[in-house]
Amino acid sequence: MKLTLKIWRQKNASDKGGFVTYPIDGISSDMSFLEMMDVLNEELTIKGEDPVHFDHDCREGICGSCSLYINGHPHGPKQTTTCQLHMRSFSDGDTITIEPWRAKAFPVVKDLVVNRSAFDRIIQAGGYVSVNTGGVPDANEIPIPKRVADEAFDSATCIGCGACVAACKNASAMLFTSAKISQLAMLPQGQVERMSRAEKMVAQMDEEGFGACTNTGACEAECPKGISLTNIARMNREYYSASLKSENV
Amino acid sequence: MILDSKSPIGPLAEKWTKHKFNSKLVNPANKRKYEVIVVGTGLAGASAAASLAELGYKVKAFCFQDSPRRAHSIAAQGGINAAKNYQNDGDSVYRLFYDTIKGGDYRSRESNVYRLAEVSVNIIDQCVAQGVPFAREYGGLLANRSFGGAQVSRTFYARGQTGQQLLLGAYSALSRQVANGKVKLYPRTEMMDVVTIDGHARGIVTRNLITGAIETHAAHAVLLCSGGYGNVFFLSTNAMGSNVTAAWRAHKKGAYFANPCFTQIHPTCIPVSGDHQSKLTLMSESLRNDGRVWVPGTKEMAEKLRKGEIKAKDIKEGERDYFLERKYPSFGNLVPRDVASRNAKEVCDEGRGVNETGEAVFLDFRDAINRDSEDAIRARYGNLFDMYQQITGENPYQTPMMIYPAVHYTMGGLWVDYNLSTTVPGLYSLGEANFSDHGANRLGASALMQGLADGYFVAPYTIGDYLAQIGPSPIDANHPEFAKAEKGVKDGIQKLLSINGTKTVDHFHKALGHIMWNYCGMARDAEGLTKAKGMIQELRKEFWRDVKVLGANEELNQTLEKASRVADFLELGELMVDDALDRTESCGGHFRLESQTPEGEALRDDENFAYVAAWKFMAENSPEELHKEPLVFENVKLTQRSYK
Q: Where is the active site (chain B) (predicted)?
């Protein structure tokens, strides 16, 4: 395959940045998108040009590192991570536009690499059950209905890639935040801190500069792990009920 | 140096309890005066950092990823073993211990392995309390499955994403301590060296991957939880960033490296499709519970298949060779990983491989689908089938999957004693980065168990004992050793940047990978290994003469990061070859062609090789010195593995 790549290049956080066009040839349809980027970078390096920087690690769709905005979609045309996108999804002669995630709360570090530490801070605000190592009850002392465990798992499967934020016109992080709030709100282990968790995590999300949710649903449509919009509805319920009942208010 | 394992004396089942009692305790009011560095935030690192912070120590946690949640533990699929015996099927701590020792082909330390089995039950309790959504039965209790040929169901799982869920559990515990101000997090920061003062580890040198700043950090103890070194093979199931640098630099500062040649090759991976391939994808070996492994009976037929003249379904039942079922009637497709991998290689070497490259065998679900229905198979393996289809573009419900072995895990690693201390006092190693528990071969679903056992339940006790002995007086961060180590790191980086040769870092990494895979892979012999040693030495020279690393240190420079890691792999590769040469027996994942039974199975030599090979770094480009820790078996009787 022969392709034209329009890639966002930006030297560092303070650089203005802009698109640079690279022709590329000899791409096999079996390659993953990131392997195509590897080929480009090998060529650039040989020519003495700075290779394109992008985040990637496991390359099997679970670590959540990869974060390319391809032809107007986070992770490209399929509902998957960038590393699990293959070149067979494109045609010979295509022009492909590649950008970093765009959000105020995810500043660009270099080229296609952004800083997603805001997500870590949202989890630090309350995305846990406060138990220390040791001194916990036997695992089978807490029976959990299979349906509840399965639903909690569906929320827990979020990989923290940030595609939801990149897809959202408001750069809202509600899908990410609500997935963790939902997982722990559904499980018996999460009940004790249920209200304060919702309050603290939402507050942190706002503080990081993420936008509000206007129920467009782009996040759900683009999420590589199929995290459902229901989580946001549940988070809103948790948040409102906390604001009525919580002792913190 | 005599390697002292510090295994407590006394009955096996009482060793750990006694040892904990005999360990010194740190006064609670003094704990905050101790600083501990944790390198790596996977299962071992995150659980250790969180647990130590909960105890009151001041912890700094480092990872090269942009978030601690992305460490490669996240990719483990299958499950985690624990001797809970919830299924009432005869499991016990002793049985898990025995299976692990036997599975490791009697090349691990009894005391460590027993402790691992003992604390395995606490891990499950801990994870459930954190809110890890394990699979459950309709009655609400935890579900288990049998895994990797185990005769009992002791594996806990969270669909095919057990590693992810366990890591997110440990990450949440870590995040809580970050919020509490007990852990300071350093993401996108790579450890470049260990600082030793008077023979004790007293800190590390790091590089900030965004700014390139080289910094030093002082501490009372340093924990290396930096994972395995499978990427020495270039292609492996490890993440692209997984590397040996932290462990290797520690090795060069005095930590012995144990059993480097013990690597595990996983049988059920998606085959290589071309030269562009950057990594290999593993599919859980639970697939072997229902899939049947086969190749055509003849070379001629395999050739037609490779040329596309015929399809798998055109090959009649009598013309198929279900080679694992044929050779191992009692275990069949569920033989251990090393046996399954070696046999796949063997039939492909005979010219009976089934894909274009000739390096693949079929894993066929036709019979299982006919027996249990397509829906039943979908319920069990749906996500794996989807993943396969996404990568290969083929539908495994209709055509058999193709699989081939790939490097997956490294049992070797930094030598540690019973306290998980390396040969450098104050320097500890946890999880896959150490060598301790899996001998020559790791059982399925035991990596997650070991990482969390080390981090949650072992290190917090053993490190306290060390800290209590050295006392809480602050470490002098202005000691000249810090400046010296920092300068060494800066010089190394400048050297890489100044070569400006003609070949890329990946070129060298791929070349090294080929050498390792061909000569130090699934089957090894003296001739090949000797050849490989020379080739690696040549390649290393060429690297330092002709590698091209663009850009500067003072910026995000992914090529520089990679170059520095590959430089270490080029040294480690040679040590792996030396270790494989020394061990002329076959055991576990290490198969020496010279040491086989008449039926072609691995032949162990307990008389001469019942030892841990621990290598001491001497000087750059000089042979390392071999030290042996004899393995003493007081509780199990050594038997030859048989899966016939």
A: 337
